[in-house]
Amino acid sequence: MSIIDILMIIVPSTLLWATPLIFTALGGAFSERSGVVNIGLEGLMVIGAFSAIVFNLSAASTLGAATPWVALLVAMIAGGIFAILHAIATISFRADQVVSGVAINLLAIGLCLYLVKLIYGKGQTDMIQKSFGKWNVPVLSDIPVIGDIFFRNTYAPAFLAIAVAILVYVIMYKTPFGLRLRSVGEHPMAADTMGINVTKMRYIAVVISGMLAGVGGAVYAQAISSDFGHATINGQGFMALAALIFGKWHPLGAMGAALFFGLAQSLSFVGKNIPLIADVPNVILLIAPYVLTIIALAGFIGKADAPKALGTPYIKGKR
Amino acid sequence: SEKTGDSGNNEDTFSVAMVTDIGGVDDKSFNQSAWEGLQAFGAEHGLEKGIGGYEYLQSQGDQDYAPNLNKLAREKFDVIYGIGFLMQDAVNEIAQQQPESNFAIVDAVVDQPNVASITFKEHEGSFLVGVIAGLTTKTNKIGFVGGVEIPLIEKFETGFVAGVKAVNPNANVDVQYSGAFDKPEAGQSIANGMYSAGVDIIYHASGATGNGVFKEAKDLKVQDPERELYVIGVDKDQAPEGDVEINGEMKNVTLTSMVKRVDIAVQDLANKTKNGEFPGGELIEYGLDANGVSVAETQDNVSKEALDAVAEWTEKIKSGEITVPQTRDELASFSVN
Amino acid sequence: MEYVIEMLDIRKEFPGIVANDQINLQVKKGEIHALLGENGAGKSTLMNVLFGLYQPEKGEIKVKGKTVNISNPNVANDLGIGMVHQHFMLVETFTVTENIVLGSEPTKAGAFVNMKDAEQKVGEISQKYGLAVDPKAKISDISVGMQQRVEILKTLYRGAEILIFDEPTAVLTPQEIQELIQIMKNLINEGKSIILITHKLKEIMEVCDRVTVIRKGKGIGTVNVSDTNPNDLANLMVGREVEFTTEKITASPKEEVLQINQLTVEDSRGIAAVNNLSLSVRAGEIVGIAGVDGNGQTELIEAITGLRKSKSGSVLVKGKEVQSLSPRKITESGVGHIPQDRHKHGLVLDFPIGENMVLQTYYQKPFSSKGVLQFKTIYDYATKLIKEFDVRTPSEYTEARALSGGNQQKAIIGREIDRDPDLLIAAQPTRGLDVGAIEFIHQRLIDQRDRGKAVLLVSFELEEIMNVADRIAVIYEGEIVAVVDPKETTEQELGLLMAGSKRSEKGVGGNV
Amino acid sequence: MSNRLKSILTPLIAVLLGMVVGAIIMLISGYNPIAGFSSLFAGVFGDVYSFGESIRQMTPYVLAGLAVAFAFRTGLFNIGVEGQLIVGWLAAVWVGVAIDAPKIIHLPLAVIAAGLAGALWGFIPGILKAKFRVHEVIVTIMMNYIALHVANAIIRTVLSEKSDKTDKIAESASLASPFLAQLTDYSRLHWGFVISIICVVVMWFILEKTTLGYELRSVGFNQHASQYAGMNVNRNIVLSMVISGAFAGLAGAMEGLGTFQYANIKAGFTGVGFDGIAVALLGGNTAIGVVLAAFLFGALKVGALNMPLQSGVPNELVEIIIALIIFFVAASYVIRLFLDRLSRKED
Ligand SMILES: Nc1ncnc2c1ncn2[C@@H]1O[C@H](COP(=O)(O)OP(=O)(O)OP(=O)(O)O)[C@@H](O)[C@H]1O
Ligand SMILES: Nc1ncnc2c1ncn2[C@@H]1O[C@H](COP(=O)(O)OP(=O)(O)OP(=O)(O)O)[C@@H](O)[C@H]1O
Ligand SMILES: [Mg+2]
Ligand SMILES: [Mg+2]
C-alpha cells in the first residue's frame, strides 16, 4: 500500500475516534476551567448516547436524514440537565468533586440501563437506522491528495468538533465570559470581590460540560456503536479527561490530544495493513496511547498547571 | 437425574431457566437465540414466564454466574442452562453442589453426570459461508473479523478459510481479531482497513463488535452505491443488520449468515428432559445434519451458482467425504482433493 | 453630610465567636482613618462587612448619609467602596490589565474583550495617581509591591471613592511603604477617603487623621491622631501598658555557630540569587539581615536549612559542613527555623495544633517509640507549649487552620524555640502581628541569645532589626554589602545601604 | 449532638435517602417498592448461601476500599485500583498455576505476589508524581487500561495457549475452604475475608498510630511544610501509592485465589476498583468505615441478583441506589447542616 493509501485509511479513522473525545474534552475544559473537576464526563457521555439513541429510534421515521443531528441537540439538552446534578452536589452542596463525578458515572449507567429495560424490555436498544455516515466535504474533497486524505470518506461531526474547539478557544480567551470563567477557576474569591457570581459561573460551566459531553456520547453512539447497551460508553469519558489534561486544559490542546489518542487507537486496529506496524504485537499497539500519554506527561508537559482552584468548593469568607 | 426426569412427566410443574452471560437475552446472538428456544418451548407447553415456567437471569459480570445458577437451582427449575463458554466453570461447580438439579451448558463441555453439554459444529457452517464468499468475491480478497482469539472462534475462522479455498484457491483471506466481542468501534476500524485494501466480503464472528463491520459496510455503500461489498453475519440471520436505504431505495449488505440454531438445541434438550430422557453427562454436537448450523434463510444476495455449490458441499460434509478443519493445524493439512 | 461612611452598632458572629460586637466606625470625607486592634480583634471582619462579603447580624451602614444594604461586593462597588484585601485577590496567571478589568470589561464588536482599550485606560489611571505598573505584565512576574498597586488600580478603575486598605504595609519593604504612603496622599488629594488597617503605630502617626480602636470584637473608641501618641494607642488596643524598645543587655558573642563561606545559590529560574556570600553568626548574638525583599534572603535561608541546593561555597554549622545534608539532618544538628511563610512551610493546617507542635520531632523519643506515636506525650507537650507561649486556641485538638495568624505564629515560635536549637533562623517572625505579640516574640529571641544560642534574624522591618539585632548585615543583590553595629547607625543609613548606594565604599567581602 | 454522632449519622442518613429515592423510582416505574426491597433483603439474609456470597463479595470491596482510602488520607487519589487489582489477580493466579509447593508456602506466596504486583502498579504513578509532578489521577487511569491489555495478553500467550482463561490454580494456592462452603450451603465464601480484616487493622494502625502514618498524612496535607519538617516528600508519595496499590493487588488475590480460582481475559473492567471509591467514601476513609460500607455494597450487589426473579425489578436499580448513596454522602454538607439545625433546636 502506498503512503497515501495508508493515510486515506488512518486519517478518517483517527477523526472518527477523536470526535467524541474532542466534544467531551471541550466540555471538560469548561467545567475544569471554572474550578470544578469533572470525572463524571463518562456518565454524561452515557446520558448523551442513551438519549440520542432513544430519540433516533423513535424519530427516525419522521425526521429522516436529519435525525442524528436533531438527536445531537436532544443529547445536548439531556447531558446539560444531568450535569445539573453534579453542579448542585459540588457547587451548592460542597461535595467532593471527584466523588460526585464517580457517582454521576454510576448513576448514569445504572439509570440508562434501567430505562432501557423499562422501555424496550431488554438489555440494549435496537440498532438505529439513521446514523452518521461517511461524508465527502464539498469542494475540499476535490483537492488532489490532501482532499483524498482529509476530506473524503470522513464523518461530518468530526469537522463540527474541530469548529467547536476553535469556537471554545475564542470564547475562553477572547470574551468577557471566558475571562470570568477562568478567573473563577483560578481565584474564585478574587472573582467574587470583582462582582462575579462564582456560583452562577460554575453552574453555567458545569452545565455546558454536560451538554458537550452529551454531544460526545451522542456522536459516539450514532457514528460508531449504532445502539445503546452496557458497553457502549466504556472509558471514552476518561480518555476525554486525559485528553483535556494532556492538552493542558486548553481547548485547542485538548483537541490535539484527542486527535493523538484517536491516531494511536486507530493504529492499533488499522496497523495490520501498514508494513512496519504489522509485525508489532497487538498488545503493544493497544496500550500505546496510554503509555504514550504517560510518557508525554512525564516528559514534555509535566509542568502543566491545572487551574489553581480546581477541586475546591468556593465558600464565601473562607481562606 | 432420574428424579427430575420423573417430575418432567407432570405438565404443570415442568420449568426451564437459563443464565445469560453479560450479553443479555437480546444480544442478537446466542443468548437471544437460546431465549427464543425457551420461549418456544414455553409456548409449546403453555408455560408462563417466571418461577415454575420459563425464566432467565442476566449476569452483570463473571462473578454472577455461580450465584445465578445456584439461585435457579434453589427455585427448583427442572433444567438450567448456562449459555456460553464463559459459564463452563460455574456450571461445573454448581452442578456438583446441586446434584439433584439438571444443567446444560451451551458452547462448552462439562463432564458431570447431571450436565448435558451442547456444542455446535461452527466450522461446518462457516465452511459453507466460505464457499459462498469464495464464489462471490470479485477481488479475490476476503476478510475475517474475529472477536477474541480463542479455540471456539478459531473454528469459525478455519472452517471459513477452508470453504473459501475449496472453491477459490486464488482468494486470499485476511484474518484479524478485534480482541473483544463488544467493541463496535474496533470492528468499524478493522473493516475500514480491510475494505480500503480491496476486500469485498467480510465474515465476522465477533458479537457486537460485528455491528461496527456492518456500520462500515453500509457507510461505504451509501458513499458508493455501485461498489459491491458484503458482510457475512453470524449466529443468527443478520440480514436486518445489513439493511441500508440509499436514495430511497433499500439495499442490503448482508451476503448471508452462518446461523447457529441454539434455539433448536435448547428447545430440543428441554423436550428430551421433559420426556425423561435427560442426556446427563453426554455431549451433544449439533452440526449440519441436525440443522444445528446452517446458511441463513435470507438468500437474496447469493447467486444461484453459490447456492448450488452450498448444497453440493453440504452433502459432502454430511456424508463424511470431507472433514472440515477446526484448528489452524488441521487447516494447514486440509485439502479438498 | 459629615461622614462618607457610617457603620453603626455592627454585630457579626461566626460559629462560636462574636467577631464584631456593637462596633461603630465613622469616616469623614477626605481623611485617612486608621483601624487598629490586636490580631483577631475583628478588623478584617468589619471591613468585609462593609465590602459586602459578610452580612452583619445587626447594625446599620450609611454611605454618604443614606442607609444602604450591602448584600455583595457588587453593591459595594456601585456605592464607590473599594477594598485592597490583606491577602491579595489577584489571578496569578492573568495580566495586570486582565485583573483590573475583570468583571467590567470593555468590549468590541459586542462580544470580545477590548484589551487595547483596557490597557490604555489602566495606563491613564495609573498615571493620574502615580501608580506605575506595566499593564501587560503577568501577575506572577511582578513584585509584591507592584501587585498591591494592581489591587489599588482595581478599585480606582471601578471609580471607588472610599478605599479600604487591610494591612497593606505588612508585605512591603520600607521603600515600598514610602511609595504607598505617597500614593495614599495622592488619593486623598484627588478627593478619596481611606480606611487603613495597620499594626504599625508609626504609620498611623505619620499618615492618618483619626484612628478607631477595637479590642476583642468591641469598639473602644475613636481618637484624633494629633491628640494621641503611640504609647497611648498601644495601651488602648491591648488594654494594658506596652513596652516598645525591647530591653536587652549587651551581647557577649562566643564561638562561631554558623559559618557561610563564598556561598552561591541559584533561584528557581537558575539565576544566582545568593552571590559569593560570606557571613558568620556566633553563639550569644543576634545577627540581623536587613535588605529589600527579593535580594536573596529566601534562597539564603533555604540553602542553610537544606531546602535548596547551593551552587558553590560552604555552610558550616558548629564547624560541620551541612551542604550535602537533608533538611532533617540539618535540623538534628541543631538548627531551628521560623519560616517566612507560616501557611506554606510552618504548619500543616489540617493537623490539630497539637500534632503541629512535633512536626520535626514526632519520630524521636519520647514522642514515638519503635515507630509508634505516643499521643499522650505529644498532647501533653503541646499543652505545655500552648500555655508557655500564650497560643490562644480553643484546645490542642483544634485544627491549626482555625487559629488566627498571630497565634499560628506563636505556635511555630514556641515549637522552634523549645527545641532549643544552637542556631535559630527567624524569617519575618512578626509579619502581620500586633504590637503585643511582636513584643513577646522579640523578647523570646533575645532570651534565646542570652542563653548562649546563635540567632539569625531576617526582616524587612528596619525597626525590628535595629531593636533586636546585635549586628546588622545588609544584603543587596545576593551579597552582604555591609555589616554595621545598630548602635552606630541610623535607619536612613541602612536604607541607603539596602538600596545598594554605598556598596563601593563600604563593601565588605570575605569573612565578617 | 456530638460531632462524633453526627459523623456516624451522616452516612446512615445518606444510605436511607438513597433507599428512599430508589423506592420512589420503583414506584414511578410501576414496581412495588416493598416487594422490591424485600426481595433485595431476602437476597442477602434469606439463606446462609446468600449471606455467604455477600461476605465473599464484600471481601474485595474491603481491600479496594482500603486502597482508595489509604491514598486519599495521604492526599492522593488512586483511581488505579482497578488496574492494580487486575495485575494482582494475574500475579496471584500465575503463582497459583506455575508453582508446585505445599500450601503453607504456596498460598502465602501467591497472596504476596498479588500484593507486590499491585504495589508495582501503584509505584509507577507514585514515582511519576514524585519525580515529575505528573498528576496521579491521570496516570492511574492510563495504568488501568495498560493493566487490562497486558494482563489479557499474558493470559493468552503465557499462561494459556490462546485460551480465554488460565488453568485452575493448584489446590495448594487456593483460599477456598470446604469448611466455609459447607457452613454457608456451598457459597464461594473463602478465607480471603480474614486477609481483608487483617489489612483493615494494618491500615488503621499505620495511619493512626505510627510515625510513618504521621508522615504520610502530613505529606498529603502540605508537602512544603513536610519538606521543611525534614520529611522525604517524594519517598512518602511513592510509599503511599505502593501501599495503596498493594491493598488493591490483594483485592485481586481475593478474586484469583478465592472466588474464581483462575484469571480470564476481560473485555472491560471488573468495576470493583471503582466501587472501591464509593466504599472508601461512604466509610469516611477510615478503616472501620470501609468495612461497614463494603458490607453494605457487597450485600446490595448480591441481594440485587434476587430482585428480577422475585419481584421483577431490574437489578440495575441497585446500581442506581448505590450511586445515589454516594451522591448523598458526597453532599453530606447538607445533611450536616440539617443535623446542626436539629441539634440546635434540641439545646
Ligand atoms: N470565616 C470565619 N469563620 C469563623 N471565624 C472567623 C472567620 N473570620 C474571622 N473569624 C474570627 O473572627 C475574629 C476576628 O477576625 P478578624 O479577621 O476580623 O481579625 P483581625 O482583626 O483582622 O485580625 P488580624 O490583625 O490578625 O488581621 C477572629 O477570632 C477569627 O477567628
Ligand atoms: N474556617 C475558619 N474557622 C475559624 N476561624 C477561621 C476560619 N477561617 C478563617 N478563620 C479566621 O479568620 C481570621 C482571618 O483573619 P485575617 O484574614 O485577618 O488573618 P490573620 O489572622 O491576620 O492571619 P494572616 O495575616 O497570618 O494570614 C483568622 O483569625 C482565622 O483564624
Ligand atoms: Mg485581618
Ligand atoms: Mg493579619
TrEMBL record, chain A:
Membrane topology term: Multi-pass membrane protein
Compartments, as annotated in UniProt: Cell membrane
GO MF entries: transmembrane transporter activity
Coiled-coil boundaries: none
Main localization (coarse): membrane
Transmembrane domains' residue ranges: 6-31, 43-63, 69-91, 98-120, 154-173, 203-222, 283-301
Pfam families: BPD_transp_2
Record's signal peptide: none
Keyword Transmembrane applies: yes
UniProt keyword Transmembrane present: yes
InterPro entries named among the record's database cross-references: ABC_transp_permease (IPR001851)
Identification of the protein by name: ABC transporter permease
Organism: Mangrovibacillus cuniculi
UniProtKB/TrEMBL annotation, chain C:
UniProt keyword list: ATP-binding, Cell membrane, Membrane, Nucleotide-binding, Repeat, Translocase, Transport
ATP-binding keyword on record: yes
Keyword Lipid metabolism: no
Annotated CDD domains: ABC_Carb_Monos_I, ABC_Carb_Monos_II
Membrane topology type: Peripheral membrane protein
Limits of the ABC transporter domain: 5-241, 258-502
GO MF annotation terms: ATP binding; ATP hydrolysis activity
Gene3D superfamilies xref list: P-loop containing nucleotide triphosphate hydrolases (3.40.50.300)
Places the protein is found: Cell membrane
GO cellular component, one term: plasma membrane
PANTHER family in alphabetical order: CARBOHYDRATE TRANSPORT ATP-BINDING PROTEIN MG119-RELATED, GUANOSINE IMPORT ATP-BINDING PROTEIN NUPO
Homology family: Belongs to the ABC transporter superfamily.
Identification of the protein by name: ABC transporter ATP-binding protein
Organism: Mangrovibacillus cuniculi
From TrEMBL, chain D:
Transmembrane segments: 7-28, 85-102, 109-128, 134-155, 189-207, 237-260, 272-300, 320-339
GO annotations of cellular component type: plasma membrane
Swiss-Prot/TrEMBL keywords: Cell membrane, Membrane, Transmembrane, Transmembrane helix
Gene Ontology molecular function, alphabetical: transmembrane transporter activity
Membrane topology field: Multi-pass membrane protein
Pfam short name (any one): BPD_transp_2
Location(s), subcellular: Cell membrane
Identification of the protein by name: ABC transporter permease
